[in-house]
Amino acid sequence: MAVAGLDSVRRSDKARVLRGTASFSRFSCRSRAALVAPLGCLGARHKHALPDLPYDYGALEPHISAEIMQLHHSKHHAAYVNNLNVTEEKYKEALAKGDVTTQVSLQPALRFNGGGHINHTIFWTNLSPNGGGEPKGELMEAIKRDFGSFANFKEKLTAVSVGVQGSGWGWLGYNKEQGRLQIAACANQDPLQGTTGLIPLLGIDVWEHAYYLQYKNVRPDYLKAIWNVINWENVSSRYASCKK
Ligand SMILES: [Fe+2]
What we know:
Helix content is about 50%, strand content about 10%. The chain has one domain (about 65-244): 3-Layer(bab) Sandwich (minor pseudopilin epsh fold), CATH 3.55.40. The chain is mostly helical. Residues about 1-45 have low confidence and may be disordered. Fe (ii) ion binds near residues 120 and 209.
């Protein structure tokens, strides 16, 4: 395993992350009212922890360099985790005081750092040194049904991801109400499910910190390379889970 967590790690959470099934239900709600209720239970909560990567920092080379992976995981993701914990502590204090003004003022930080933690935790499991190629089984059938072909899907997700203005993410998500796959773009660290209702299957981080050291400003080259390390087993597993 590449790196130990920064905080004391809840072993059950860590195990779920390594299986790619981490649950972040507290962030899945879309309304403010729904957001506040779970946070009201913070008295008994554990701190969030940086999950270990399920592979070494250099394992995705030559497609993503070890230097990028190390900084991305141990600095960027770690910062989201630390700032999320700080924000939740402040939120807990504001709730205890009945200070609604402070609660409201903390929500952008919660969205940004909570989203950063959710998104990166999914992202690491979406990648694998044994990835690439094409998905199989039900996921492939659904891709063909909803996008016409795998090539068409790949082209569309690439285009949406390349086209994100500034920092953000390209996503393949599942629309549970309509029973179909959808492609979406999210700005900054907006979490897919919390802001669109789509269940995340595959996320592509297009923040410059994800590629600049290797690909400079040429985001399309990074997008071209990342398909070589997509963990289709993980994406398929997520698809199977959200259909249940
Ligand atoms: Fe990132």
